[in-house]
Amino acid sequence: MSLSFVLISFAAPIAAQANPMAPSEAEKLLPLSAPVLESPVDVAQAAYENPNPKSAQRRFEISPNVSTLGLGASVAFPVANQLKVRAGFNTFSRGVDFSANDIDYDGDLKLLNVSGGVEYYPSLKSGFFITAGAAYQNNRVEGVGRPSDLTRTYTINGRQYPAALVGELDAEIRLPNKIAPYVGIGYSSPIAIDRNLSLFANLGVMFTGKAELDITSPNPIANDPRFAADLQREVDKARDDLNVPSVYPIFSLGLTYRF
User: Fold this and answer.
1) Residue 102 Cα to chain centre, angstroms
2) How confident is the model at residue 24 (pLDDT cuts 50, 70, 90)?
3) d(Cα 251, Cα 253) in Å, to the nearest integer?
4) Is 19 helix (H, G, I), strand (E, B) or coil?
5) Do 99 and 164 meet the contact criterion of CB atoms below 8 Å apart?
6) How many domains does the chain have?
7) SS3 label, residue 35
8) Where is 31: in which H helix or E strand?
9) Minimal CA–CA distance to 231: which of 214, 210, 219, 243?
């Protein structure tokens, strides 16, 4: 065995003990691969600034509601950072009585609305939105004027007609714009906050056009030119008396559940 080999064998462990803090090659690479641990303060700050993971920002939601359009529900889904699309359905009916030029009618109020629109949320963390869209509406009042006594007479355009001869009169009040645009503001679940249940509210107007009125007779007297002309003049007068605005107010209130 050579003298140089012996000296090297003894010198290696002595050098290692003399510099115990010298990092090995593996230790030099360790900081490059090990993850950086965040403090609890950093984690809490990140949760406050972004309280919801991206996967929770794209969630389907349903909103049952009570509305001036009737009872119903709407569904919505975010399609962009500040946009939701929403579709809804509302319906309602109840009995109503009304009069037109001294003729009493037993009627029914019938509401039917299918809507669709877009909601813009100025802030991801706020539920406030601005909305615009359109609705198919078939909102109307239908009534039947029946004489309480067949020995009495109808006064139509100032002319007397026997009730037994005229019989029933059918009346309908309807809103002409079947596809009615609407605009409004409201509140729903914020897009960027992971919340399952929240309030839903909507306030706006639907442009339905000025209400129209029709009165017809199903009986043979309707074929009499004089009666038909008098009835048409009576309808024209009643239309002028209708005090119904050309916009329909919308107010909806309900809850939103996000799946």
Assistant:
1) 40
2) low
3) 7
4) coil
5) no
6) 1
7) coil
8) helix 25-33
9) 214
Dihedral over Cα of 234, 235, 237, 243: its sign: positive
The first and second tokens of residue 237, run together, are: 């007068």
CATH number at residue 143: 2.40.160.170
Considering Cα of 160, then 164, then 166, then 168, what sign does the dihedral take? positive
| Range list of H helices, 38-188 | 40-49, 163-166
> Tokens representing 26?
């593996």
> Quick one: the chain helix, strand, coil %, rounded to 5?
25, 45, 30
Structural domain boundaries enclosing 81: 59-258
Under a CB-based contact definition with an 8 Å cutoff, are residues 149 and 185 in contact? no
pLDDT tens by residue, 70-110:
999 999 999 988 999 999 999 999 998 877 656 778 889 99
Q: List Cβ neighbours of 54 (8 Å cut-off, separation of 6 or more).
A: none
**81: Cα within 13 Å, side-chain hemisphere:** 4
